[in-house]
Amino acid sequence: VNDSGDIFGIGGGVRRAHSDSIEIENDAVLFSIDYTWEEPVIGPATLGIGLDLEYQNYPASPYTSDGRQDMFAALTATIGAPGWNLYGFGPTMTVEASRTESNVSLYDARDFGVRFGITSVF
Predict the structure, then answer these.
(1) CA angle 92–40–52, rounded 5-degree value
(2) Which residue stretches of the chain are H helix?
(3) Beta bridge partners of 8
(4) d(CA 90, CA 118)
(5) What share of the chain has pLDDT > 90, as a percent?
(6) Which of 2, 100, 117, 122 could be stapled to 109 by a disulfide with Cβ–Cβ 3.0 to 4.6 Å?
(7) Out of 14-23, 36-45, 48-57, 107-116, which region has the weakest mean confidence (pLDDT)?
(8) Which residues pair with 102 in a beta bridge?
(9) How many Å apart are CA 82 and CA 6, to the nearest integer?
């Protein structure tokens, strides 16, 4: 949190998923960064943006002898309307674009989505 009340976040981690299935067992490295403005940015609306990155390594794969490696990236923007709150909860809209690139083309994907929700405005 800076002097203006904006919120900056950064995170990372590692994950190991164990399974009897070679389709599920993997190791991953994760990184995320986000920023949310406290004051309205777009008229009366607040704005938060984020970037998530994840690299997954599957040691075995039925589709390749070299195992499978996936790289996932997602960019999100969340718009909130704290002035339109009811009992301390206001509406949000999140737009997300993501892409997965894999050395096994079956797992390549591009997604775009819009989510509507509510959040605390305290």
Answers:
(1) 55
(2) none
(3) 35
(4) 5
(5) 70
(6) 100
(7) 36-45
(8) 70
(9) 15
Confidence (pTM): 0.85
Question: What 3-state DSSP class applies to 22?
Answer: coil
Measured on CA atoms in the order 57, 19, 24, 114, is the torsion positive or negative?
A: negative
CA pair distance 89, 75, nearest whole angstrom: 25
Length of the chain, please? 122
85 or 56, higher pLDDT = 56
Alpha carbons 55 and 51: distance in angstroms, whole number: 14
User: Looking up tokens 């909130």, which residue turns up?
Assistant: 80
Considering only CA atoms, give the Rg of the chain. Answer: 18
Token reading at 78: 């969340």
Cα–Cα distance, 41 to 35 (Å, whole number): 12
- Over residues 88-100, the mean pLDDT reads 95
Q: With contact defined as beta carbons under 8 Å apart, do 32 and 9 qualify?
A: yes
Give the pLDDT band (50/70/90) at residue 114. Answer: very high
